[in-house]
Amino acid sequence: MKYNPNEIEAKWQKYWAENQTFAAKNNSEKPKHYVLDMFPYPSGAGLHVGHPLGYIASDVYSRFKRHQGFNVLHPMGYDSFGLPAEQYAIQTGQRPEDTTRVNIDGGVDKEGKQIAGYRKQLDKIGFSFDWSREVRTSNPDYYKHTQWIFIQLFNSWYCRKQGKAFDISELVTVFEEEGNKLVEAVCDDNVAIFTADEWNSYSEDQKEKILLQYRLTYLAETEVNWCPGLGTVLANDEIVNGVSERGGFPVIRKKMTQWSMRISAYAERLLEGLNDIDWSDSIKESQRNWIGKSVGALVTFNVKNHNEVIEVFTTRPDTIFGVTFMTLAPEHDLVAKITTPEQKAEVEAYIEKTAKRSERERMADVKTISGVFTGAYAEHPFTKEPIPVWIGDYVLAGYGTGAVMAVPCGDERDYAFANFFKGQNGMQEIKNIFANVDISEAAYGSKDNVEIAGSDFLNGLNYKEATAKAIFKLEEIGQGKGKTNYRLRDAVFSRQRYWGEPFPVYYVNGLPKMIDTQHLPIILPEVEKYLPTEDGLPPLGNAAVWAWDTKQNKVVNTDLVDNVSVFPLELNTMPGWAGSSWYWMRYMDAHNENEFASREALAYWENVDLYIGGSEHATGHLLYSRFWNKFLKDKGFAPTEEPFKKLINQGMILGTSAFVYRVEYDIDLSWETDFPAGEGQTISLKKVLVSKGIFEKIGLDGIKQLMISKLEKEIFEPVKNILQNAEIKILTKAINISSITPIHADVSMVNSSDELNVEKFKAWREDYADAEFILDENGKYIVGREVEKMSKSKYNVVTPDDICDEYGADTLRLYEMFLGPLEQAKPWNTAGISGVFGFLKKLWRLYFDDNGLIVNNDEPTKDNLKSLHKTIKKVAEDIENFSFNTSVSQFMICVNELSSQNCHSRAILEPLAILVSPYAPHIAEELWSQLGHTTSISDVAFPIFEEKHLVETNKEYPVSFNGKMRFTIELPLDLTAAQIEEIVMKDERTQKQLDGRTPNKVIIVPGRIINLVG
Fold first, then answer.
1. Burial of residue 27, with CB atoms counted within 10 A of its CB: 0-12 exposed, 13-18 middle, 19 or more buried
2. Range 7-139+579-652: architecture per CATH
3. pTM to 2 decimals?
4. Binding residue per annotation — 792?
5. The Methionyl/Valyl/Leucyl/Isoleucyl-tRNA synthetase anticodon-binding domain covers which part of the protein (predicted)?
6. Among 20, 348, 581, 605, which is least packed, fewest CB within 10 Å?
């Protein structure tokens, strides 16, 4: 009976689907365990073998937990809104909902391309997902609840005093009774103070404008990353090297009215929560840096000749007397107000230039020094001396206050800036306020061993003393106060795109109103064009039916807007991270029509026990998810402060690219002849590709000689045709080779011996159909190999479908786990697959021969039990430690040992099938069934490790004569030295070695040494 993976796997995948084997229960006597994967974006490219790595790991763990008796929730869905689908729709003329559906479910797209579909690909690998809970963020029954959460955020404010969010109605009550003077809230800067009487006298519109300054989601004019090529705002993590990650379009800074989320309110809780979760240090550090907590002072500088002030946050108020100049971000509101007429042109030109650089690019560029003097001066709060005000792109409008008090003696960047512009208008000499410190070559940035000098009342103080006194004095004169600041800024929540969640918002007198939750979802309308309108509005500006009728409470035709009962709806859509910021909760109760999840389901599952996904989401998705979870906890919905207890970032599986090598060359021909064509006739040259082996062996000079001999005919025949019958007096030739250029070849055209199928390559690349291929001495073209990111553009993608078809899903699963530690990047090498496939066939032969099942009821031997229990111990420990690769090694060792022991005992092979089940579930199910069981192996208890089977009772001693080992002898470990000596001396091998002699000394250390001397 042969191992037939395709037949076995189809059988058990059908069984699991029909029997809902992996459906979790929302109430169970079993303890719960929630295992989650970062759900995929369903692109048309489908899965390659790198994508399932984390899914396989989580599946192994989920199956193991089921064997341990847990009620396991292991769901899957799709992050199906977003820019990629919309861009593809624009390019191909298809509706994004259609392409998204085909990418998930499979089918044929508009261009006739066959799409496998994510669902079919995932099923083929045999994951134990609870598909009954599948979610798609682009489905109205899902984003209905995303819209609901947005409304909750709009209707909430954050109380600093109590450190949590409350309903906005509670804030209104305070305003009605007390005004806002004593309110400790996270809100916009410079909120005007008003009394209760003033509040009660305001119009409804005035009240709404004030409340927008407090709401957790609010409309505000914000500096954003605007991408003209994509027609939308991008988050910082969507920009790479100053261009959009999607499409590589330039990104500029621009002010726009946007929806924003007050994530900054949760900065301290986001920091504190990192202490309570089991995440890697690197991810925690990324979040700490992104949140960027700083303790210092907020200092106010008056601007000379203007009724304006510059607010600066500094972590070094002790250096206040060392301020040499000030720098504002080019986008700072004050720049236009304080710039002098003489400096206006230069300042405006600099601002225009700066707008083309993203914040991330500006932050990363520490070498370039640039700036412009505004012509304005600020006033030092203590000395009243004038301080020149510059603008520079190393200062960011969104970080701190967008202004820096520059102390060059204590800061390297300020030092470089001051020296670069030294002697120019507005740049003063650097002041040194540190005693006994030389700053002639560099700034002194350390806080250690500081003694302040040249600083009036701070002289002689150290850093800590001077900081405290400077803050006290600033507060005393009303020009500063102690402050804790965060780098974390409020998150822009608008996108000028189509394929995203519609906002449940309409506008009355330009002010946002929320649609009542009972009328949700507000469904994305049909549009003909997915590009912005001709007058620059977002794509929803093209919608014919996109207005809100407040009498009928429904969406109606846009041309019915009368601003009396029918009002315009919001034209922006939510960003890609909206739906992914709460999806783990929806899995808990995926079919609840009335709530995003019931309180009972939330209370039972609480949060995710294990989350596996990519580290690239450290400061995007993971931060936003924690923010939304904390907010929902404040509102009494989420039962825990943190959404994900344990997080593991899987490493990347890299592709092994294949390269052919093109010879870059030209040919010089010259001759003397009476033929009127003269010299230097142009000859059409063939492309030449040289095998890697030849290239490495003979180098450029050798290739040159090869080409001369191989291409003689191609080089000179055209010349003879040109010259026809003319008399050739002199003919010279020269081949010039400049370089060898590597070119990607599709890995599907290369075999395991790195040999290229030349004819397939020519058919694939028509521009090389007539190319000359220089083969090696064996008549083969050998490609070069290089490990790179697996990508369609590098032609190094291997699909899991192909591996499953040829070797089976169990082989794929085992091989991916075997490649190396889960969290490390590792190269894919298809050649290694056959070894894992061979292991599974060897495992099969423990249970079957050609005639069928050979499992017997024989008592297992001591060695059988030892092999089994070593494996039980190792596999259980490895899965708990996520060391999956060493588990696979142990399986191989165990099967080899049992094979050599000729073990076919049911007492060994039944538990072995359970051990293998998390990794290779299909073969395990088949073995379990063939052993006579009628239910799935998935819930069978994991074998219990028994230490006694690993306790050694015998010891194999090396027996040495004068220090040289001559033979070994196995003896019980409980023998005394005298008993060991007696047995050894009687052994015939000892007698033969002694040859009648009596040893001078017999050295015996029980359990270790036997040595006969003399």
1. exposed
2. 3-Layer(aba) Sandwich (3.40)
3. 0.86
4. yes
5. 865-976
6. 20
